[in-house]
Design goal:
It is a single chain. The chain has 221 residues and is α/β, with parallel strands linked by helices. Helix 4 crosses helix 5 and helix 5 packs parallel to helix 6. It is globular, with a radius of gyration of 17 Å. The mean pLDDT is 92.
């Protein structure tokens, strides 16, 4: 489902060159749940951004679902990303002025769907994470765990084949983090959703199919 071939990423300023990723070769099978661990600044988020087509590698090729995307134009890339990928962030990235339902609907606005269908899909996504009774609330009225469940609902509302999660339990206590992890494991087991998750938590990583480690931009195992 995901293939990275000789991926390197270099950030340059007028005076400094920083090697964020160095010759990463990685394959993630359909339905696999992969954890990525490593110290802060080792390139984990950069790796996730490149897989998620939010950033371009300096060198190497990215293949998603057997499709090389290096020649995609901006609009085609955005459409492909919207249809194939769902994103979950550590800090939730919910829009405070929108209701829970409207936050979850957002990825569907860019699809040729009517308002009634968007609402139906958003309600189904919220029900799947146990928050249908909160759909009229604002994010400020939710706990941290509830906000992350809303973020998961937003990530899955378009039924993507791949979910990319950047420290999804990082801002939560162990109980709420466990609940969020249970939702991700259920998505993986029941829907065969491919998941790549960055985490610092060995206990959480131990529940996934496979773990890779990064150090100074290189894969060390």
């Amino acid at each position: 489902m995901i293939e990275l071939n000789s991926i390197s990423k270099v950030y340059r300023t007028k005076t400094v060159e920083t090697l964020a990723l160095d010759n990463i070769n990685l394959k993630v099978d359909k339905g696999e749940f992969l954890s990525v661990m490593g110290p802060s600044g080792c390139g984990k988020s950069t790796l996730l951004n490149i897989i998620g087509l939010l950033d371009e590698p300096t060198r190497g090729d990215v293949v998603i679902d057997a499709q090389g995307i290096s020649n995609y134009k901006t609009r085609a890339l955005a459409r492909f990303r919207n249809q194939k990928l769902g994103f979950i962030f550590q800090s939730f990235h919910l829009i405070n002025d929108l209701s829970v339902l409207d936050n979850v609907e957002l990825p569907l606005i860019y699809r040729p769907l009517g308002a009634a269908k968007r609402r139906e899909m958003a309600e189904e996504a919220l029900e799947s994470v146990g928050l249908k009774n909160r759909m009229k609330h604002l994010p400020s009225q939710l706990s941290g765990g509830q906000k992350q469940r809303v973020a998961i609902a937003r990530a899955i509302v378009g039924r993507p084949e791949i979910i990319l999660a950047d420290e999804p339990t990082g801002n939560l206590d162990s109980v709420m983090g466990g609940e969020v992890m249970d939702i991700l494991l259920k998505l993986n087991a029941e829907d065969a959703t491919t998941i790549v998750m960055v985490t610092h938590d060995k206990r959480i990583a131990g529940k996934t199919h496979r773990l890779i480690r990064l150090f100074d931009g290189s894969q060390v195992n």
